[in-house]
Amino acid sequence: MPEPLQFIDLAAQRVRLGRTIDEAIARVLQHGCFIMGPEVAELERRLAEFTGASHVVTCASGTDALILPLLALGVGPGDAVFVPSFTFAATAEAVALCGATPIFIDVDARHFSLDARCLPAAIDLAERHDLRPVGVIPVDLFGHPADYPAIQAIARRSDLWVLADAAQSFGATLGGCRVGRFGIATATSFFPAKPLGCYGDGGAVFTDDEHLADVMRSLRTHGQGREKYDNVRIGINGRLDTIQAAILLRKLDIFEDELARREAVAHQYSVGLSGLVSVPTVADGNISAWAQYTISLIQRDRVAENLREKGIPTAIYYPKPLHQQVAYRGFPRSPEGLHTSVRLAEGVLSLPMHPYLRPSDQERIVEALKAVIR
Ligand SMILES: *Cc1c(COP(=O)(O)O)cnc(C)c1O
């Protein structure tokens, strides 16, 4: 059997970066400011430059990047927040942790993200449940920006805020604008497997709202006020480690090039696989961050097993939509059903995707898929 492939090859990136990361970490060890050291402020500046967002608040994880804006917006018991069912748990978890009620909405099969057409009926449903509809959290699943123009049009009419869960889409663009500028705030994650990952947990919130940014900065340090031991609100310990900021700065240097490589990998997959399976599409004028290259097909489990035997790893994101999971099945659901979420969970398969995937290895993956599907 040929050598097994990697699903995400972090070692290849490490080889490319050479000693720059080791040196960046060594500098932090030397200055010793492990909490809110100078690298954190520098990273926030660089991320603001990269996205065009006015304010960047780094934090300890992508989950905290969702919790911080929800806390800052005062979301709590009696509030309803609309979230897709076909996503990672953190999207709904952050809402429930704040004491609010997540309401599950179906996704659109073409871009895997929240189907704006289902929002109006869900808003009515919230009111029938005696809940106050306050906001919506679209998820840029697999790296494709959600349909923000459509979602925002409905949100504006119903006086809802939009919080973007861009954990998987950092670096993507919509209508020429980078992720980080849509909605009242954008949350992203630097978990190692995300498009821009650190060597542990990390995240950031982007916003153009200065007051919101100030409140989130306070919240990430236990609700600290002007003076260190005068807390003015209930917060969390949600800071990004200086060492992770130092690592991210060096990875950000090559990030645009990595995005272009991901785009090339996705293109080669799509050329090889269209007509054979359902391939992901990106709306005209948009660029995906290609966190995952996800196809959908019948007999998914048989195909995955066959690929595994040939040394080709795959992953299933996600085998169960949230509304079917033990912790979440009690929350309200869109009156229009969650059929697409259920169907996708049965058929999706993510293929190896990273900026260093060689064309010859991709050829091997495409040929293996052709052999098992034909
Ligand atoms: C990864 C992820 C998160 C959470 O990020 P962490 O850094 O792991 O806390 C939230 N939402 C989505 C859609 C994700 O993929």
Descriptive key words:
13 helices; 374 residues; globular; two-stranded antiparallel ribbon; alpha/beta
Explain the overall architecture.
The chain is an alpha/beta fold. It is 40% helix and 13% strand. Strand 4 (132-136), helix 7 and strand 5 form a beta-alpha-beta unit. It is globular. The mean pLDDT is 96. Bound molecules: pyridoxal-5'-phosphate.
Q: Which ions, cofactors or small ligands are bound in this entry? A: pyridoxal-5'-phosphate
Q: Helix content range of the residues, please?
A: 25-40%
Order of SSEs: HHHEHEHEHEHEEEEEHHHEHHEH
Structural class: alpha/beta
SSE layout and pairings?
Elements: H1 10-17, H2 20-31, H3 38-51, E1 55-59, H4 62-72, E2 79-84, H5 90-97, E3 101-105, H6 119-128, E4 132-136, H7 148-157, E5 161-165, E6 173-174, E7 177-178, E8 185-189, E9 203-207, H8 210-219, H9 242-253, H10 255-273, E10 293-296, H11 300-309, H12 339-347, E11 348-351, H13 359-373
Parallel strand pairs: 2-3, 2-4, 4-5, 5-8
Antiparallel strand pairs: 1-9, 6-7, 8-9, 10-11
